[in-house]
Automatic annotation (TrEMBL):
Single GO MF descriptor: hexosyltransferase activity
Residues covered by the TarS/TarP linker domain: 261-357
Keyword Transferase annotated: yes
Keyword list, A-Z: Transferase
CDD domains: Glyco_tranf_GTA_type
Domain Glycosyltransferase 2-like: 47-168
UniProt-annotated stretches for the region Disordered: 9-30
Protein name: Glycosyltransferase involved in cell wall biosynthesis
Key word Transferase present: yes
InterPro entries, per database record: Glyco_trans_2-like, Nucleotide-diphossugar_trans, TarS/TarP_linker
């Protein structure tokens, strides 16, 4: 075996470690050397604990990502009886990264709980972080999470998790948070252990992994940690943890039975019992229980329920009923969506639960058949919808499902008003017709500035499903032209790459099509350049309130000068620029409009034949030269300004 392995038998635990001493020393010498090394080493910021079992193809990527972290860290790798060469590779890393990588070898335990607990027993850092051997960290992950923890005295820091062919949590990573509470955030939605934990908290409260569990042991650990964490922080602006699916499907979580619904709920009950023993009855406990009911219990009455046989269905329903009897308070019930409330009411009716599962898992076919503006500036949306129930085991006996209620819903993108999973800002518009042909009219004047995504709310037997609209549409449908309504521009568009319908109110993500074209230019008293022209946005003229000012921008320095604009009927405008106020340089002309969102700027177009001729004049001993011109190609108005003083004239002559 390559590398130096130092055997240290731990009181019947069968552990041996490598990477703690120099080659060639006897046991006593090695122990003294290691003690001196530890005494000379500065405090360790983070202990990274990595459980390993037969992960040889992934170890280099994982360990390299840990070694490049720019914090004072130690890497404790616990080999859980690997037989694929992982143990030998780990000892090689320990030999070449002495004092940083430590390896503990165990006999096979079967799960990640015991290796992680052993790693905790060896940890010396102020914080601990758990990383699976087939995953890896972003290069700045620990640095950013540690900085967040140091600023806030955090007990836990959640770093953004991204999935590679695996689902990753999203709701808690919408923005950075220096300090959040369990009651006013959705951090409890994430119960994986891939977080930064203050080790003093972990040790004080004896927080450990349940070694009897093959899956879900981290749920137990993290639930316990949340119960004692006084300060929780979130790093959301950097991809900290990369969650990877093994191509061969060999990890425990990728095994077919890893999410057996009955076993999973029995495991979850242990975590719930732990949580309720620490959190008093009330709003906070209801908030945390709501997460377990939505994500752990009632979710198993959906697709997993259809996939199960009759006996397993009865067991699932019984486990959910037991959870409801023990912990379903009125406060938890209020936090459930309509379909979950329906499931709770039907726990004694297996056939009804099956039908609800069919409704929830049904494929909703929808097609956009019409999209245009009506004469009163309403956006008309027409389409059709059908539900297709798919049974996981057989297509025989599928129930007929018909939408018995429809609404058009516009949801403000990024407009979460709350923190409990985020209640989005929505506007609901009634629909005429039925699933075979519906029509809705969007009153744009009721929408605030921002990007609104268009959904169809489909109701079937009291169960509502919210689906995006527009990806499937008739070939004849084109994107309607933008409209300026009450001074605000509304731009319907289809998203990329999915092609769903959205409405940009104010011009946030869609470029506002507009034109500013001069009809006349002339010099007047005071060396003022008078510009007359016409503005259009889409096919119409904006109102006078929309026009803000004329902007002259110096091409190389970025300096700007604004001048007032007079706006008349039909989009006509006039501006008078005292060009003597512009410094030397090349100045480009823009017209800036306020259309309800970010300022919209349009280059001023000018046919070359109407551009006023150059003008030169003296002011004292300074000669000023101004040359308006239309740029080549697109014919946009620009002006070259030059000044000449006696000194500059002398310099020119001497050259």
């Amino acid at each position: 075996m390559t590398g130096t392995i130092i055997q240290a038998v731990r009181a019947g635990r069968g552990e041996r470690t490598s990477g703690e001493g120099p080659p060639g020393d006897e046991a006593v010498g090695r122990g003294r050397w290691a003690a001196r090394e530890e005494a000379q080493r500065p405090d360790i910021d983070v202990s990274v604990i990595v459980p390993v079992h037969n992960c040889r193809p992934y170890l280099d990527r994982c360990l390299t990502s840990l070694l490049v972290q720019r914090v004072n860290r130690e890497i404790i790798v616990v080999d859980d009886g690997s037989t694929d060469g992982s143990a030998e590779l780990l000892d090689l890393y320990a030999a070449h990264h002495r004092g940083v990588v430590r390896v503990v070898h165990l006999e096979r335990s079967g799960g990640a709980g015991r290796p992680r607990n052993v790693g905790l027993a060896h940890a010396r850092g102020r914080y601990v972080f758990f990383c699976d051997a087939d995953d890896y960290l972003g290069p700045e992950a620990l640095e950013r999470m540690l900085a967040m923890a140091e600023r806030n005295g955090s007990d836990m820091v959640l770093g953004k998790i991204v999935g590679h062919d695996r689902r990753a949590p999203v709701s808690m990573f919408r923005e950075n948070a220096e300090r959040v509470t369990l009651a006013e955030s959705c951090v409890y939605n994430s119960l994986s252990c891939f977080k930064l934990f203050r080790r003093e908290m972990v040790e004080r409260y004896g927080i450990r992994f349940d070694e009897t569990l093959l899956v879900g042991e981290d749920v137990f650990f993290t639930t316990h940690a949340y119960c004692h964490a006084e300060v929780i922080s979130v790093v959301a602006d950097y991809d900290c943890y990369h969650l990877v699916a093994r191509p061969d499907g060999s990890s425990i979580m990728q095994q077919p039975g890893s999410r057996d619904p009955v076993a999973w709920m029995r495991m979850i009950k242990k975590s719930v019992e732990l949580m309720v023993s620490h959190v008093r009855p009330g709003a906070l406990r209801d908030h945390l229980l709501g997460r377990h009911f939505r994500m752990d219990a009632l979710s198993n009455l959906g697709r997993p329920f259809l996939d199960a046989g009759d006996e397993t269905r009865r067991l699932i329903a019984a486990e959910v009923a037991d959870m409801c009897e023990r912990w379903l308070t009125d406060g938890v019930r209020e936090r459930l969506n309509p379909i979950d409330r329906g499931r709770v009411a039907a726990l004694q009716d297996i056939d009804r639960l099956v039908r609800l599962a069919h409704i929830e898992s049904a494929v909703i076919h929808r097609r956009l058949t019409g999209l245009h503006w009506d004469p009163r500036d309403g956006l008309v949306v027409a389409g059709l919808v059908a539900l297709d129930a798919l049974d996981a085991l057989s297509r025989d006996g599928r129930p007929d499902l018909v939408a018995d209620g429809l609404d058009l819903v516009l949801r403000l993108r990024g407009g979460n008003a709350g923190s409990d999973g985020g209640r989005p800002v929505e506007r609901v518009f009634p629909v005429s017709g039925d699933h075979e042909g519906f029509t809705a009219v969007v009153d744009v004047t009721t929408l605030s500035s921002g990007v609104w995504d268009v959904y169809l709310n489909v109701e079937c037997e009291g169960v509502t499903r919210l689906v995006r609209l527009g990806a499937e549409r008739d070939e004849r449908i084109a994107r309607p032209a933008p409209r300026v309504i009450d001074g605000v521009v509304a731009l319907p568009y289809f998203t990329r790459p999915h092609g769903n319908l959205s409405l940009d109110v104010g011009g946030y993500v869609v470029s506002v099509p507009g034109s500013v074209r001069l009809t006349r230019t002339r010099w007047t008293i005071g060396h003022r350049l008078v510009l007359d022209g016409r503005i259009s946005v889409g096919s119409a003229a904006p109102g006078a309130r929309a026009v803000r000012h004329l902007v002259w921008r110096e091409r190389w320095s970025g300096r700007e000068r604004r001048e007032p604009v007079e706006v008349g009927e039909g989009g006509e405008f006039a501006a008078r620029q005292a060009l003597g106020r512009l410094g030397p340089g090349t100045w480009d002309a823009y017209l800036e409009l306020d259309l309800g969102g970010p300022p919209a700027r349009f280059r001023v177009e000018a046919p070359a034949e109407i551009v006023a001729p150059p003008r030169t004049w003296w002011r004292g001993l300074v000669r000023r030269s101004v040359r308006p011109y239309a740029t080549a190609g697109k014919g946009r108005l620009s002006t070259v300004v030059r000044t000449f003083t006696p000194r500059s004239l002398v310099r020119r002559v001497l050259r």
